[in-house]
Structures are given as structure tokens and as C-alpha cells.
Write a structure and sequence with these properties.
By secondary structure, this protein is mainly α. The longest helix is centred in the C-terminal third of the chain and has 41 residues. It contains 11 helices and no strands. α4 packs antiparallel against α5.
């Protein structure tokens, strides 16, 4: 079975078919002068394009972690396929979907980003100067929280992360809806009945994904609304929004009390990883600002030292980002196996 990533055609197809899963096309050779960051060629090419785009340091670090997770999942899928598993192509379809989300998330899908201006999307208002989250409901809630006097400075920072996390979820929802719309257009042009059955199956999966994401968004917004009106309670289990989201998922699943207690302890360890990741991201951004300042001064020795420190921090941020996202994926899958269907990306 071949995988066709049509979104990637404009990025890196040169004399090969887009998205083809084969050793010749996708696995990097040791020959050549290009730096090989990833084992799979199409992922390495996306990384190279990101370097040329000069993404912000923290965003580049996040992309690296996402691509590393994607590579791990694709290599696992290739082993399963070689063993004759994934006959229905469900895992393959999920890999395609996740890869499309990564490309769109970082503006690398070859499309002009019109999602924030499309009136059919979740955000349906004109962008105004001073908007914090490009969403009127979130902006209104955030302004209310800031002026309520219910939150300390530290609590406001935690709440800000929760609002930003919710905004990211809205963006991901819009990206997935774009892929569903494109799949529906393709489905209309199907001629073969057998091919139509396959695409109908994929389309059904994507609609289920959209419905689950919308449920998550509604529950997340209700949580933000409750916190804004009532403040943080003394018995709040976690501070990080991703950890809180996982804990709420777990409580709605079929986990026993003992399993919930065990998961709560695991989530505490995971929250520590998330906090370390935030710390390295902050340090990376500060190091980047210092490097730009030093480069402007022109002191070569100082520039070399600053670059070395920046590169070290960049590697640390990528490493911690991968460990954090891998742990997030593991916990999400664990909860999903107990009665919930949820997408971790």
C-alpha cells in the first residue's frame, strides 16, 4: 500500500511520487553532503525547509519534537506492515492525518494560512488590534479574569497557559476540518465502488476525530469559564493545562480507583517534565535574544561562546520536548484503551 501525501508535493517531490512509503524514497542514505537529522527522507526534508524558513527558536524546537514523534510512529508502522498487520489501513490513515496537521500547524503545507479569516471556522470575527487569542469568547473571558482580582500573579500565568492551550486546540480543530473538507471533495470524484468504500471509511474516521475534538473544546471552554468565575480551588490537582486535560479524561474513562490513583502519580511526574520543558524554552528564547545582541556588537569570541550556549540549549529543549510529548502520547493511549477515544496530537 502506498501513502500519498498530496500536501507535500510542493515541498519536496523531485522525480518521485509524493508520500510514497518505500526504502528508496523515504530512508536517508549516508552519501551526500546534506545533514541528516532524521532517518526518513520526507521528514528530514521538512526539517530542512523549516531551517530555511527561519522559524522562531522555540517553534523550531517544537517542530523537531513533533517530527521525531512522527518518525517514531512511522518506523513502528513499517514494522507492523511488514508483519502483515494494519490490513484496513487505519494506522496508515492516522499517520497521514497527523503529518498533515504538523505541516499545517507550522505553515509548511504550501497553503496561504486563511484559517483565521474563514467564516466557516470556529473563529468568526474580524481581527482587531489588542486581541489576545483571536477569539472573542476567549478574549472576553481573559479580560474578565485579569480584572477580577481573584488571581495572584502566579495563578494568572497558569491561567494564561490554559487559555493559550485552548487556542492551540482551536487551531488544530480548524486544521483537521480542512483535511476533512479536502477528503470530501476527493470522495465526490470516486469512480470505483471498492475505492469508494475505502475512502468512506477514512472519511468516517475523520468525522469521528472532529466530533471528539469539538467535545474536548467545549469541555475545555467550560473549565476556563468556571475558573474565571470562581477562581482556582484549593484542591486543584494540577497546574499545567495538558496535565489537567489528561486528568479530566481519565476521570471520564473506565479506570478503577486504584488505576486512577496510579495515573495521578504518573501525571505528577509528567507535569514535572512539562515544567522543565517550559524552563528550557524560556532559556532558549533568552539565549537567542542575547545572541542577536552579541552579533550586533561584532565581538567574534563572544559570538562563538553565545552560539555554543544557544546550540546546547536548543538541543536540550528538543530532547526535553520529545520526552514530554512521548510521555503525553503514552498516557493518552493508556487512557484511550480504557474506554475513551482521543487524539494526542
Amino acid at each position: 500500500m502506498k501513502m500519498h501525501f498530496t500536501l507535500l508535493f510542493c515541498i519536496f517531490v523531485v522525480g518521485t511520487k509524493a508520500g510514497k512509503y518505500s526504502k528508496e524514497v523515504n530512508e536517508q542514505s549516508d552519501k551526500g553532503d546534506n545533514q541528516v537529522e532524521f532517518r526518513i527522507a520526507k521528514i528530514n526534508q521538512v526539517w530542512g525547509k523549516a531551517i530555511k524558513m527561519q522559524l522562531a527558536p522555540v517553534r523550531l524546537s517544537e517542530l523537531h519534537s513533533d517530527l521525531k514523534i512522527q518518525e517514531k510512529d512511522e518506523l513502528q508502522w513499517k514494522k507492523l506492515k511488514a508483519e502483515g498487520l494494519d490490513e484496513d489501513g487505519e494506522r496508515e490513515a492516522k499517520l497521514r492525518r497527523n503529518f498533515s496537521i504538523i505541516l499545517a500547524k507550522y505553515g509548511m503545507d504550501g497553503k496561504k494560512d486563511t484559517r483565521t479569516l474563514d467564516s466557516n471556522r470556529l473563529k468568526d470575527h474580524d481581527v482587531k488590534e489588542g486581541d489576545t487569542f483571536d477569539d472573542p469568547r476567549l478574549d472576553k473571558l481573559w479580560n474578565k479574569a485579569k480584572t477580577s482580582g481573584k488571581f495572584s500573579d502566579e495563578e494568572l500565568q497558569s491561567l494564561l497557559r490554559e487559555f493559550q492551550h485552548h487556542k492551540d486546540k482551536i487551531n488544530e480543530y480548524n486544521i483537521v476540518m480542512d483535511t476533512v473538507s479536502r477528503t470530501e471533495e476527493i470522495h465526490k470524484n470516486v469512480i470505483s465502488p471498492l475505492e469508494g468504500d475505502v475512502k468512506e471509511h477514512v472519511l468516517h474516521q475523520k468525522h469521528d476525530d472532529l466530533k471528539q475534538r469539538m467535545r474536548d473544546l467545549n469541555q475545555g471552554f467550560e473549565r476556563l469559564r468556571k475558573i474565571t468565575h470562581e477562581g482556582y480551588s484549593d484542591d486543584t490537582e494540577f497546574k499545567e493545562p495538558r496535565v489537567t486535560e489528561l486528568w479530566e479524561m481519565a476521570k471520564r474513562s473506565n479506570l478503577s480507583e486504584d488505576e486512577l490513583d496510579s495515573l495521578k502519580e504518573e501525571l505528577r511526574h509528567f507535569e514535572t517534565k512539562v515544567e522543565k520543558h517550559h524552563h528550557y524554552q524560556e532559556q532558549l528564547e533568552l539565549s537567542h535574544q542575547k545572541l542577536k545582541h552579541v552579533e550586533a556588537l561584532g565581538d567574534e569570541d563572544h559570538i562563538v561562546r553565545s552560539k555554543e550556549k544557544y546550540q546546547t540549549l536548543a538541543e536540550k529543549a528538543r530532547e526535553m520536548g520529545y520526552k514530554m510529548k512521548k510521555h503525553l502520547q503514552d498516557i493518552t493511549n493508556k487512557i484511550s484503551r480504557n474506554g475513551l477515544q482521543h487524539n494526542e496530537l
